[in-house]
Specification:
Layout: H1 2-135, H2 138-158, E1 170-175, H3 181-195, E2 200-205, E3 213-217, E4 220-223, H4 226-236
Parallel strand pairs: 1-2
Antiparallel strand pairs: 1-3, 3-4
């Protein structure tokens, strides 16, 4: 009986020890589990923070890429616009230069035509003068000379020479041949009457005039020569 009591007592002690140990293990396990959960929560919080940071960094990166792309597009557009402006300016400059060259060429052509026309007129006048001297007799030339002098005197009489009142008192007469006393006095009387003072006549012979003559006083020039007539005809032809 005593042995059974001892065994029961032993079993009871062992059971109490086991219960105590189990309770202590359970508390330790609970504490450990709490620490594990706390650690998991801390790690999860850190992971959330890292994820937020990564998301923010990704957004910043995308924003920078978008800004960089927009800036690149802007620079490309500016470069295209500048290239277009340069091309337009070059085209306009080329057009302006072409117009300028065409204008210069046209001016040179007109100048060449004018020079050629003057040369042709000069040759036509020279040929006409030569033909006049060869085809008309001396008497016929003298008759034409006298008629042109009469026309010259008439032109002087019709001319308004009042503005020449302040000029000198010498009239210059250049004629193809010597003039008669009647024509000389008519010209001198005409100018003296119009200018209300005595005028002198200075005569010069120039056979290149062919016939007729030229009267000059100050800025006034009355050309009644046959050469001038041929010249006018050449220019109006």
């Amino acid at each position: 009986m005593e042995l059974i009591g001892i065994v029961l007592a032993f079993v009871l002690v062992v059971g109490m020890i086991a219960l105590t140990a189990r309770g202590m293990f359970a508390r330790e396990a609970t504490h450990a589990l709490k620490r594990v959960r706390q650690r998991e929560e801390e790690l999860q919080a850190k992971a959330d923070v890292l994820e937020q940071r990564l998301a923010q960094m990704e957004r910043d990166h995308r924003q920078k890429l978008t800004h960089a792309q927009a800036e690149a597009d802007r620079l490309m557009q500016e470069a295209k616009q500048q290239a277009m402006n340069i091309r337009t300016a070059a085209v306009e400059e080329a057009k302006h230069r072409a117009r300028q060259l065409m204008g210069e060429a046209e001016h040179a052509r007109q100048q060449m035509i004018a020079d050629l026309a003057r040369e042709l007129h000069s040759k036509a006048v020279a040929w006409t003068c030569t033909a006049f001297q060869q085809l008309l007799t001396t008497a016929e030339q003298d008759t034409l000379h006298a008629r042109l002098l009469q026309q010259l005197v008439h032109a002087c009489e019709q001319m308004d020479i009042a503005p020449l009142n302040g000029t000198g008192a010498r009239i210059r007469l250049t004629s193809a041949k010597p003039i008669g006393q009647e024509a000389r006095q008519a010209i001198q009387h005409c100018f003296s009457t119009k200018l209300h003072r005595t005028m002198t006549l200075e005569e010069t012979i120039d056979d290149t005039l062919l016939a007729g003559g030229v009267v000059a006083l100050g800025d006034l020039l009355i050309d009644g020569s046959l050469k001038q007539y041929f010249t006018r005809m050449a220019h109006t032809a």
